[in-house]
Amino acid sequence: GSALAHEAQLVAALAEAILRDGYEFSDDESYRQDARALQQNALAVRSAAEEKNYEQARKAVGEIGKACANCHEGFRD
Q: What's this model's pTM, rounded to 2 decimal places?
């Protein structure tokens, strides 16, 4: 649980960094929505892992994957 919570916190920090003004695409609302989804789900993974609710953590990890795929599909071609 604690290793997963730590990794999730790192993903949340990454999302915070890519939401900062001046970061590539940070002025695009679709990009910001994907980054916010990444951050929210990373925090959900952290909370679920801390509570040892691994089913909820698994679901949130799946949502992180969707946010990553959506962003890379739209902005990294």
A: 0.87
The DSSP code sequence of 4-62 is HHHHHHHHHHHHHHHTSTTSTTTT-HHHHHHHHHHHHHHHHHHHHHHTT-HHHHHHHHH
User: What is the C-alpha to C-alpha distance for residues 61 and 75, in angstroms, rounded to an integer?
Assistant: 21
The two tokens of residue 72 are: 């890379």
Closest CA to 42 of 22, 73, 19, 74: 19
Which pLDDT tens digits describe the chain residue by residue (77 residues)? Answer: 789 999 999 999 999 999 998 888 888 999 999 999 999 999 999 999 999 999 999 999 999 999 999 999 888 65
